[in-house]
Design goal:
The structure is a homodimer. By secondary structure, the first copy, chain A, is an alpha+beta fold. Chain A folds into 2 domains: 63 residues, Orthogonal Bundle (Arc Repressor Mutant, subunit A); 131 residues, Umud Fragment, subunit A, CATH 2.10.109.10. Chain A is built from 4 helices and 11 strands. Chain A binds a DNA duplex through helix 3.
DNA sequence: ACTTGACACGAACATGTGTTCGTCCCTATA
DNA sequence: TATAGGGACGAACACATGTTCGTGTCAAGT
């Protein structure tokens, strides 16, 4: 396949740049003006070329109907998850009551391929302290949880131990009438307790660490 | 502040939904048609109300110039990073040669607040094996690296040990004429080697773990 | 020289779209 | 009852924007 002409490349780059700045696509005349092209028909012509090469999609007769393919078709696959509080060994997990929109002070954006196919009922907590290093989770990490009060055996869940008044993140196994909470670190011993002492707060979906 | 009327809420919701589906904002007449409103002026009127309440921004005289505030203004803060290969103890890191656009088989989307202020020269590798558990990094994790061949003392970097033919992820300290590579796990001993034996491949920026 | 194809021009043309205006229908309030 | 304000109508109006068409240029083949 022949390479794109300089002008075609410039047009493509401009559209991408424009999209980063504006939230809506450029018009043909925006492109024309920016690149100093003398006629809209020239832009139209080159846009058609770009479309044939599947680099963009055009929606006919719709103003600003240019979509950039290739790069992150974006938005669709990205989920915003509210960081509603902290998780620490000695504190109960804040309940994701009204995780409506925007009322969380902080948000985490992440691709949906990371968090799986459950965009709903997700919330995030910032880890405080080193109580979960055995689960390879560090102080300052952000854990993404799926709000649920039950789970399958073997899943890693955030549980509140009523008696000990303690939050912990462990693999959950129901064994007869007792519960085994298995640390991720295989060299550490599991905790055994009764089923009515544990309150499952959510299932671990993802961990995100940001290095300063 | 008074609540939004049912119609205003519907308009706001529709714009958000439209944006999810189309990559470009709706026109006033799109809104009119969808909600069965008889006149464009009604839409205009309600749009003005929404704008006064800072729920949207309108760009005057620009077609489809509606921007939804509040929710993830999206795109802007999200970065797509190519996963260009694997990182394992015994393998050299694949060089991010042509991390152009889209030629990577896999991409990771993540908010720019997580990866810091360096959107460029970022690449990602999937961790293979348990050689980095001491850095709280598990098998299957994705590490985000900033491509660079030098670093400051104390930064965590991916280095290739030429002599040992081995990749490792450690804190880097240049001490006189030798290099100390300090595992994140404080209970483990550091590695000492000569400066010309280490080739810095990139600086650790973030770690993302996806639980099945 | 002749043809062909990739590109570029410029000028209309036809809609797409935002804006404005006068009017009307309610409900709450004085 | 009179009045004011939120909200809705419908019809223009004006310009923003996509589309089309006839021409021109230039380099590569033939």
């Amino acid at each position: 396949m022949k390479a794109l002409s300089r002008r075609q490349q410039a047009i493509y780059d401009f559209i991408a740049r424009f999209l980063d700045d504006n939230d809506y696509p450029p018009t043909i005349r925006d492109i024309q003006r920016e690149l100093g092209i003398s006629s809209t028909s020239v832009v139209d012509y080159n846009l058609k070329v770009l479309e044939e090469r599947a680099m963009i999609r055009r929606n006919r007769n719709i103003s600003r109907g240019i979509e950039v393919l290739g790069r992150h078709t974006s938005r669709r696959n990205v989920i915003s998850i509210p960081v509603i509080g902290q998780i620490a060994a000695g504190l109960p997990i804040p309940v994701p009551d009204d995780l409506a929109l925007g009322d969380a002070t902080d948000m985490v954006e992440i691709g949906s391929d990371i968090v799986g196919n459950a965009p709903r009922d997700l919330f995030a907590l910032r880890v405080k302290g080193h109580s979960m290093v055995d689960a390879l989770i560090n102080d300052g990490d952000i854990v993404l949880l799926h709000a649920q009060e039950t789970c399958e055996n073997g899943e890693t869940v955030a549980v509140w131990l009523k008696e000990q008044k303690e939050t912990t993140l462990k693999r959950f196994y129901l064994e007869g009438d007792r519960v085994r909470l298995q640390p991720a670190n295989v060299t550490m011993d599991p905790i055994y307790t009764t089923a009515d002492n544990v309150a499952i707060q959510g299932k671990l979906v993802s961990v995100v660490r940001s290095i300063v």
